[in-house]
Amino acid sequence: MSIQEQYRKKAAELLSSGEVKLVIGYGSGSTPDRRRALFARTADDAALFHVDAACDANLSGYLVNEGLLSDKKKIGIFLKPEGIRSVNILAAESQLDPDQIVILGFTEENGTVSGLQGTQASDFTSLMTALKENRTTSEKEQALVDKIEAMTPQERFAFWQAEFEKCIKCYACRQVCPMCYCKRCIVDNNQPQWVHTSSHTLGNFEWNLVRAFHLSGRCVECGGCDRACPVNIPLRLINRRMANEVLDAFDHFSGMNQNQEPVLASFKKDDPETFIL
Amino acid sequence: MAKIGVFICHCGENIGAKIDCTRLTSAMNDHPGVSVSVEYKYFCSDPGQENVKKAIREHNLTGVVVAACSPRMHEATFRKACAEAGLNPYLCEIANIREQCSWVHTDQDMATEKAIEITRSLIEKVKLNNELQPIEVPVTKRALVIGGGIAGIQAALDIANAGQEVVLVEREPSLGGHMAQLSETFPTLDCSQCIMTPRMVEAAQHPKIRLLTYSEIEQVEGFIGNFKVRIRQKSRYVDMKACTGCGDCIQKCPQKKISDEFDCALGKRPAIYTPFAQAVPNIPVIDKEHCTFFKNGKCKVCQKVCETNAINFEMQDEFLDLEIGAIVVATGFQIQNTAMYGEYGYGKYADVITGLQFERLASASGPTAGKILRPSDGKEPQTIVFIQCAGSRDPSKGVKYCSKICCMYTAKHAMLYAHKVHGGKAHVFYMDIRAAGKGYDEFTRRAIEEDEAAYMRGRVSKVWLENGKLMVRGVDTLLGKPVEIAADMVVLATAITPQPDAREFAKVVGIGCDEYGFYNEAHLKLRPVETATAGIFLAGACQSPKDIPDSVSQASACASKVIGLFSRDQLEREPVIAINNESTCSGCWGCALACPYNAIEKKDILSRSGELIKQVAFINPGLCQGCGTCVTFCRSNSIDLAGFTEKQIFAEVMGL
Ligand SMILES: Cc1cc2nc3c(=O)[nH]c(=O)nc-3n(C[C@H](O)[C@H](O)[C@H](O)COP(=O)(O)OP(=O)(O)OC[C@H]3O[C@@H](n4cnc5c(N)ncnc54)[C@H](O)[C@@H]3O)c2cc1C
Ligand code: SF4
Ligand code: SF4
Ligand code: SF4
Ligand code: SF4
Question: Which residues line ligand 3 (CB under 6 A)?
């Protein structure tokens, strides 16, 4: 049985047995090689699920839709390793109860999809450790990161200025990100207006820097924002740089487990710096 | 409409010489919203303050900006002046044009420009200031003193003598701490126990002091004036009410060979024991680990001989929950284990001992009744080598800092030895002699000149046993020669270190430690007895190595802080605290983790029918110290700091 068949069957069982009230997965998209989110509520719906290399979105963001989990019922969801990491973060940040999430895990390599063992976020601990140990970047991407890193600050500023110039402040990058769950985003606060909404250099830098900071130590590099950006700003490079930074400085790999403390909010009392209590 | 008064101070020459105050004044007069702008030589003087008050009344001001020195100097002065003129004190802001401008610039034009900008930005801020009222919190007038050494006892007595309640908690079976172990004390050579025991008895009998020995602090919650403390009273297995302290049980206990901690392993004690003869309270405890009954299930000899039936093997630890207004931490020190210096042979040769062991040998109540005798064979040593800084000032193996008291007690040991063993020869190896203190240098001179201790500046490289002698090889750096001394005993002035559990304990209490584990004061010079946590104070050697006079002074200083705190029924706190916007909070708890004062709790938001809608962060105004950490953390921008709101800061920045 193909992996797609197995998972359709599994989803149907979950729904018909009443174990979950809903399964979030991938259905057909606007073109044959695209997938969009599919919300299955009956065993029949489950037959419409696709599990293949085209399933790229990180669906975990749907879990924090207001009220979705408040009835304490379980929800099944198709997730790749990044998605499992984001569930861990959402759990660590009290946005969901991980016991309510039944994971249908899969991973994709060179176009081939294979299933992952486990159904609870906590079942994937060894996978998370392996991911942390073997962080991979495509050669093309690493070359770009290296190139930017080698630039002088002026060159780097010019590079990003040119990139950010394209930003139209559509906030698609924010909407797609599972970690951007705040009911009110700082950019929506206009009393005072810290982040300018106009698409000028200052406003564009403000927005993209704030986004980078708010996601440092939290971004799981699912690539959602990068794919969502209508003007193709290479947001993945920023994400990668931040991930490198927190890993090197704090040994922090986002979404390792459900008890992970946010890297920018946790401190150790035995820190040698005296400003720490 | 804003009616702001701007008061530009010359601070004599301090500001006036570098900034064109007249230009600054007229520029401010032209700024929108400013009703009056005046300059004056010293606004902090009485006539200066009168000026401000008069302007507030005459112009009906809605805000005041004083352009002067740092707000750390005179913010309080001017806020008070405003309040006296009927303006809410929090409508007064200080523009720092001294430390941040005139003192650091040389060009008058540019400095004036900058002063204009600074003052303008504060005007913009003050326009958005709100009237704030100080927060009042009630004070529980009961102090907790942790540690029953001389520092803790002194603090407890001073507070109690001022008529306030004290709970004094000591984890050992008796009060006393290290001072009870000492023989005679520098610089006066009075007997330690003789001056210590009256204090111990006074503390135990004081009607205002509740003494809890053999007890430990389990948990501290709350905040200044309102701490909640949980104390564990460890079971002694002896009923404190029934026991008369006759000591029959101690006599009859079959376990007699337990190494005595109080005598630093130089003596032996039974399993049921009091640490020393004058122990307060004079009630024994059973050392469960060594008791035959607890080990083998048979014995209970002590129970049989006890005439008052005080011994109870079923006794359990008990917990006490107390409300406390202020805490004095006086948990003292430990001496470093010098076994890490293999070359000194501590732990290998019985006659290489620590200074504290020497105290026990020299003490009349010690294992040798005050005779200086070698632990190995009980013979009187004819030559003793004292090694100072055996651990202190040694960044590689020991500790970096100076332990402060060892120069003094080594001189004392050399003297006591000379007095007790006539003809005995004391050699002292030292790095420097640090004898600063009243009567201290005279004291070390006496050891050298009258009691003929041979002081040698240099280090010891090796101690070994040869033909029954401890051979000490060192160097006399003043002569530039190696020396070798055949000694009968070697005494190491070991380093004073924090209690081994100090770091853990600091977390329980909620205070900070320095890099070594000594507790941190709020400010080394200006607030040496306060900690960064309001309402918690430090006394004695738990803060840094200290001798008795220093420990006692600091304890009394702590007491005065506590008494000052208890002199009021309500505490007024600055209203600068964080406030959370519950409608935008996403309940991520990042702020709660980030808050160094544990001021943030979860709060349930319920619907009318009582169902949980969401959980949000709630900032306890009594605990919040207004540090602003949470404000910077909150991604949804939900937290604001009263007195420094985002709108105010934004206006201030945009005013530049
Ligand atoms: C060898 C030697 C000789 C000395 N000679 C002199 C001298 O001649 N003259 C002089 O001025 N000074 C002398 N000193 C220094 C003197 O001992 C100290 O200054 C003094 O003991 C400090 O008192 P303290 O109360 O701060 O600490 P300590 O005496 O250490 O008392 C601390 C107390 O707190 C208790 N405690 C610790 N942790 C806890 C806890 N978590 N809960 C409850 N209780 C706790 C301990 O059991 C102890 O009873 C000497 C020191 C040494 C080592
Ligand atoms: S920032 Fe982009 S890559 Fe990172 S978790 Fe959010 S959507 Fe995914
Ligand atoms: S998705 Fe792209 S264009 Fe839209 S706000 Fe984000 S960075 Fe700007
Ligand atoms: S950090 Fe902000 S959003 Fe998160 S719980 Fe605190 S107040 Fe709420
Ligand atoms: S301002 Fe500081 S003390 Fe107050 S709640 Fe925020 S982090 Fe805690």
Answer: A 167-173, 228-231, 233
What does the pLDDT read at residue B205? Answer: 97
In chain B, the number of structural domains is 5
Residue of B nearest to A212 (CA): B635
The pLDDT, as a whole number, for residue A264 is 85
Classify the phi-psi angles of B630: left when phi > 0, otherwise alpha if psi is within -120 to 50, otherwise beta: alpha
CA A50 – CA B383 distance, rounded (Å): 91
Below-70 pLDDT ranges, chain A? 269-277
> Given this model, what pLDDT does residue B607 score?
87
**Residue B476: which CATH number?**
3.50.50.60
On the question of pLDDT at B638 being above 70, the answer is yes
Residue numbers in A near B586 (CB within 8 A): 95, 181-183
Same domain, B544 and B480: no
B291 and B323 fall within a common domain: no
pTM to 2 decimal places: 0.69
- Å from CA of B590 to ligand 4 middle: 6
Residue B71 included in any domain = yes
- What ipTM describes this predicted complex? 0.90
Number of the ligand closest to the Cα of A173? 3
Q: What angle do CA A245, A251, A254 make, to 5 degrees?
A: 75
CA terminus-to-terminus distance, chain B: 21
B199 and B216 fall within a common domain: yes
Cβ atoms of A242 and A215 closer than 8 Å: yes
Looking at the fold, whether B345 and B366 belong to one and the same domain comes out as yes
What spacing in Å lies between the alpha carbon of B135 and ligand 1's midpoint?
Answer: 39
Question: How many angstroms separate the most distant Cα atoms in chain A?
Answer: 62
Same domain as B485, residue B344: yes
- Summarize pLDDT for B41-85 with one digit per residue, the tens: 999 999 999 999 999 999 999 999 999 999 989 999 999 999 999
Which ligand has its closest atom nearest to the C-alpha of A203? 3
Amino acid B519 reads Y
What is the pLDDT, as a whole number, of residue A271? 64
Give the Cα separation of B328 and B75 in Å (integer).
30
One domain for residues B355 and B474? yes
For chain A, the distance separating the N- and C-terminal CA atoms, rounded to the nearest angstrom, is 58
Domain end call among B100, B127, B154: B127
What range does the domain containing B637 cover? 578-654
Instruction: Tell me which residue in B587, B615, B647 faces A192 most closely, judged by beta carbons.
Output: B647
Substitution site in B146, B168, B179 for ligand 1 pocket (most atoms within 8 Å of beta carbon): B179
Q: Does residue B530 sit in the same domain as residue B586? A: no
B267 and B361 share one domain = no
How large is the average pLDDT for residues B184-208? 96
Q: Which of B92, B127, B162 is the last residue of a domain?
A: B127
How high is the pLDDT of residue B572? 85
